[in-house]
Specification:
mainly alpha, MetI-like fold, MetI-like_sf, transmembrane helix, transport, MetI-like
């Protein structure tokens, strides 16, 4: 078991290091000069040279990479080329907002998808199961930003029940719930539809397994046998989808945050791209990549804990 954990941890560290190299190099090959963007096209050659020296842009790429990587290991993302402010506190504040949105959306998606997907599988030959499957299929085809705009039109403009955007920290619970409800529903609805389809498929497959037929032959009803012996096995393939959806939610939050004017990591990324703030874009992308790799690492770890075959192999 310890050897498998060390292998997973080694794979995680190696993937993160390779990702930092790829992100660093890709952003360096983009057209445009950060010095010209920061100082303007009327800047003199001496001013441009002084700016590059101030920000270490005149050193070899290898030196720049290791200086940047050393800062990452210390939690220092550098100073913005455009605003001159330290990027680290901005990333920390914005990341908290995004993680709250993604976490709540994932909770809603799981809470909706697991019971609905199970019901759709149990009643797959009945009208209720077909209706759930049809609705979930429709939900998969609708993008999150469109759901968000429809929610704003109906609940914020027409009914005036909830605010159309903005952000309030969780320290003010009432206002926080009002502002977070629509964006969380917009993010969670599509993911719930996708997850419902996978839960239905996993439960249908488990229902055909021999061990469930054995459990029913011993006197258990089909539903009791499924709850006691089937759902845990069905959860193993679903866990992979949940991990992928968490990564998808991090990316999807970029658009939803803009729709609801939420100051999250996605909004910061879009603003930094528009301002050509190379170091800020680099920091946000690396944080997102590390978060996605970490999610995959945790999913692999959960597999080892849930699947006895992997534990025995370890």
């Amino acid at each position: 078991m310890a050897i498998r954990l060390l292998k997973l941890l080694g794979s995680f560290i190696a993937t993160v290091l390779v990702s930092t190299v790829v992100v660093f190099l890709l952003l360096r090959v983009l057209p445009g000069d950060p010095a010209t963007v920061a100082l303007g096209i009327e800047a003199t050659t001496e001013q441009l040279a002084a700016w590059r020296e101030q920000y270490g842009m005149n050193t070899p790429l290898v030196v720049q990479y290791f200086e940047w990587l050393g800062g990452l290991l210390r939690g220092d993302f550098g100073v913005s080329y455009v605003t001159g402010q330290n990027i680290s506190p901005v990333i920390t504040d914005r990341l908290q907002v995004t993680l709250i949105l993604v976490g709540l959306a994932m909770v809603i998606a799981i809470a909706v998808a697991v019971p609905l997907g199970t019901i759709a599988a149990i009643r797959h030959q009945r009208p209720s199961g077909a209706i759930i499957s049809g609705v979930s299929q429709f939900g998969v085809a609708v993008p999150s930003f469109l759901v968000g705009m429809l929610l704003i039109v109906f609940f914020a403009i027409e009914l005036d029940w909830l605010p159309s955007g903005g952000w309030v920290p969780p320290s003010e619970p009432a206002e926080f719930l009002q502002h977070v409800t629509l964006p969380v529903i917009a993010l969670g609805t599509v993911q719930a539809s996708i997850l419902t389809r996978y839960v239905r498929s996993a439960v249908l497959e488990i229902q055909r397994e021999d061990f469930l037929r054995t459990a029913r032959s011993k006197g258990l009803t089909a539903n009791v046998a499924l709850v006691r012996h089937g759902l845990r096995n069905a959860g193993i393939p679903v866990l992979t989808v949940v991990g992928l959806q968490m990564a998808g939610l991090l990316v999807g939050a970029v658009v939803v945050e803009r729709v609801f004017t939420i100051p999250g990591l996605g909004s910061y990324l879009v603003d930094s791209v528009g301002n050509r703030d190379l170091l800020a874009v680099q920091a946000v992308v690396v944080v997102l990549v590390i978060a996605i790799v970490l999610i995959n690492f945790l999913v692999d770890l959960a597999f080892t804990l849930l699947d006895p075959r992997l534990r025995r192999a370890a």
